[in-house]
Amino acid sequence: MKPQVFSQTDIEILEKKSLYQGFFALEQFTFKHKLFAGGWSQPVTREVFERGHAVVVLPYDPKCDKVVLIEQVRFPALATTKSPWLMELVAGMIAPDETPEDVAHRELLEETGLTARHIHFVSSYLASPGGSTERFYFYWAEVDSSQAQGLHGLADEHEDIRLHVVDREVAYHGVVNGEIDNASTVIGLQWLQLNYQQLV
User: Fold this and answer.
1) Which residue numbers delimit the Nudix hydrolase domain (predicted)?
2) To which H or E segment does residue 186 belong?
């Protein structure tokens, strides 16, 4: 017998409350859902962090086999890391009037000063579906790594960004040894390690 496949229609929202509205939002939902064994669950209440959706860009130079990483401070990381200055991929939030690809080009320029020769959509994934609606749209950008230099970021967004141009293997080693430990960068560099030979 084929297992049942559930969809959006198998959840019923009973109540929605707005708990907080600022730069981000916090909503409280009460819902019920169909059960694997049949029937419906009891009402369940969950808070959902409404952060919006984001784009992640992996700037890669296939001619030199180099990755452009950015370094910036991430205050929430202070709770669990020795240093909250993290090595990351380019990333940014999607405004209501923007497409993910528009954001990929914009953020690449703002955070690295680079313009992509080509930009390629790879995949999308949920960041933390147990508590947030946020979805990442992941691209890799073909760049000239020799042009990556200087400090970047928007002052009005309190960005202070330093660039690092590193060999692909060095970047991946940072994932393996735990020096690079933020999810979108780990996912992006693992993807690159599996696929770089097809990007030349």
Assistant:
1) 50-188
2) helix 183-195
Question: Is there a binding annotation on residue 98?
Answer: no
pLDDT tens per residue across span 43-81: 999 999 999 999 999 999 999 999 999 999 998 899 999
What are the boundaries of each domain within the chain? 6-48, 51-196
Catalytic residue among 71, 157, 169, 179: 157
Please name which of 5, 163, 140 lies closest in space to residue 60, comparing C-alpha atoms. 140
Beta strand 54-61 with 135-142 is: parallel
According to DSSP, the β-strands at 135-142 and 66-73 are: unpaired
Residue 91, marked binder: yes
Between CA 164 and CA 81 the distance in angstroms is 20
| The token pair that represents 75 in the structure block | 């205050």
Token pair, residue 6, equals: 């559930």
Q: What is the pLDDT of residue 183?
A: 95
pLDDT digits (tens, 9 = 90+) for 86-135: 999 999 999 989 999 999 999 999 999 999 999 999 999 999 999 999 99
Question: φ and ψ at 74, to 5 degrees?
Answer: -125, 95
Kindly state the average pLDDT of the residues 14-18: 97
Instruction: Tell me the CATH number for domain 51-196.
Output: 3.90.79.10
C-beta separation of 89 from 115 below 8 A:
no
State how far the alpha carbon of 91 is from the alpha carbons of 4, 67, 100, 136, 160, in Å: 37, 15, 11, 9, 14
Say whether 107 counts as a known binding-site residue.
yes
Cβ contact 141:118 at 8 Å: yes
- Secondary structure (3-state) at 175: helix
